[in-house]
Amino acid sequence: MTQLDYKTLQKLDAEYHLHPFNDNAALAKKGTRILTRGEGCYVWDAEGNQLLDAFAGLWCVNIGYGRKELGEAASKQMTQLAYYNSFFQCTTEPTIELAAKLAELAPADINHSFFVNSGSEANDTILRMVRHFWAVQDQPQKNIFIGRHDGYHGTTMAGASLGGMKGMHKQGGLPIPDIHHIDPPFWFADGGDLSEDEYGLLAARRLEAKILELGPERVAAFIGEPIMGAIGVYIPPRSYWPEIERICRQYDVLLVADEVICGFGRTGQWFGSQYFGFTPDIMTVAKGITSGYIPLGAAMFNDRVATVLKEQGGELAHGATYSGHPVCAAVALENIRILQEEKIVERANSEVAPYLAQRWAELGEHRLVGQARIAGMVGALELVPDKRKRAFFPERGTVGPVCRDFALKHGLILRATWDAMLLSPPLIISKAQVDELFDKTWKALEETAGALG
Ligand code: PLP
User: Which architecture does CATH list for 69-342?
Assistant: First the structure.
């Protein structure tokens, strides 16, 4: 524990620490919030404020804060064998056990894991592995990935390129070659007079049009988040993913589900693909795999892809010092044990999610809310100037942060993307805490409406 006071810590932070996804000059003036402790769904800052974390850190603390078992699993593994790699024809016990456990949990025949340290690296891994998969089958030209504008697949060169965030593309000359994007499925802004399901088909068929434009013999894979998180929790219509799957099968394009947010229970199902009823060939996972207690990600392949990589792939020229780190694997195993033994995903789905959906819909009644969308334990409130119209504020992104700051004042952490208030609480949130979430969000909405005049 540090002996430094809050102001000194803030000063040191401003001077020596560059924050991701922040205007660092503005942050230095405002001063960072410094978190010191977490328990269940709450965190405390260094000034002693208790905050209900309705965003689970960064969509990741699925089992909640303060589970000592995870610390004990890390400590036990560190003491026994702190590190060994999976290069040199070696590996470690927890790494093997985790790979087997993931094969048991993952849908269909997605049975093979390649471990990395984050979601971004997992997406980098699939880019390289998928291109290799086609190349060793005499189709090196089948190397194009299609993602979505406004999608988020991480922050590395490949991750940011697969994603479609304009601000990220602007910095560093992205996307890298042979990555294309189609428009995202966002009925609220783009659906016009179509029903959600009609629009879902239309949005999915943009993929078919893009494949035909590029030539199916050139398109290696399509990648998508089952629910587009970072851009504002875009929950696609039910018709979207099955149609995407049909198109991928028709043109022999591999289907990659980026499950970094949705995986490990976020939608009330173990994986987002199960929530939407489609079967990917490949998925990437991170975040909830350890509930954020330690960094870990995995690229997971089905039998078809893995068999080619194993039997025709030769040496995989890819890997990181910490691929399959035993301590991370031990923590992931303990996290999954808790999720399974305490039936956290199933209970969230059957007990809390319906109540959360009901209360979220009540928030949707507020005059500032144009749409209250929710899928299991992830949702968004789209704040709008006129509730009767599906249109954004003229200066998009000015109102969300105001609402976020009012929520913070009341001890509630929600994230704002543009003018959408994003929700992604620990899966263990109770009904009483859902009520607390409701009351604080309503107050924040009222104060935001007041500030708008
Ligand atoms: N994919 C999705 C859908 C994400 O939301 C994120 C991070 O938020 C990533 C990938 C990148 O994961 P990481 O930040 O662990 O690199």
Answer: 3-Layer(aba) Sandwich (3.40)
Ligand 1 close to Cβ of residue 334 (< 6 A): no
Do the beta carbons of residue 154 and residue 160 sit within 8 Å?
A: yes
**Integer Cα distance of 134 and 140 in angstroms:** 6
- Compute the distance between CA of residue 166 and CA of residue 169 in angstroms, rounded to an integer: 5
Residue 383, judged by CB atoms within 10 A of its CB (0-12, 13-18, 19+), counts as buried
Is the beta carbon of 118 within 6 A of some atom in ligand 1? yes
Residue whose CA lies nearest to ligand 1 atom number 6: 154
Query: Tens of pLDDT along 358-384?
Result: 999 999 999 999 999 999 999 999 999
What are the backbone dihedrals phi and psi of residue 371, each rounded to the nearest 5 degrees, phi first?
Answer: -155, 135
- Integer Cα distance of 18 and 255 in angstroms: 36
Dihedral pair phi/psi, residue 147, rounded to 5°: -120, -160
CATH classification code of 33-66+343-452? 3.90.1150.10
| Domains of the chain by residue range | 33-66+343-452, 69-342
Element (H, E) at 295: none
Give the number of C-alpha atoms closer than 13 A to the C-alpha of residue 227, restricted to the C-beta side. 31
Q: Count other Cβ atoms within 10 Å, centred on residue 79.
A: 8
Question: Could you give the dihedral angle defined by the CA atoms of residues 344, 350, 351 and 354, in that order, rounded to the nearest 10 degrees?
Answer: 130
- Half-sphere exposure of residue 388, counting CA atoms within 13 Å on the CB side? 0
ipTM tops 0.90: yes
* CA–CA gap between residue 392 and residue 238 (Å, rounded): 24
- Report the mean per-residue pLDDT for the chain: 97
Q: Check if 352 has its Cβ closer than 6 Å to any atom of ligand 1.
A: no
Name the band, by pLDDT with cuts 50, 70 and 90, for residue 453: confident
Of all protein residues, the one whose alpha carbon is nearest to atom 9 of ligand 1 is 154
Q: What is the pTM of this model?
A: 0.98
Checking if the pLDDT of 1 tops 70, the result is no
Q: Is the dihedral of CA 127, 129, 131, 134 positive or negative?
A: negative
**Nearest alpha-carbon partner for 153 in 170, 165, 166, 141:** 165
Rounded CA separation 375/423 (Å) = 10
Q: How remote is the CA of residue 283 from the centroid of ligand 1, in Å? A: 13
Pocket lining: 256 vs ligand 1, CB cutoff 6 Å:
no
Distances (CA, A) of 143 to 125, 126, 129, 251, 309: 14, 12, 11, 14, 15
Per-residue pLDDT of 103-114, as tens digits, reads 999 999 999 999
User: 270: buried, middle or exposed (CB in 10 Å: 19+, 13-18, 0-12)?
Assistant: buried
Is ligand 1 within 6 A of the CB of residue 286?
A: yes
pLDDT value of residue 323: 98
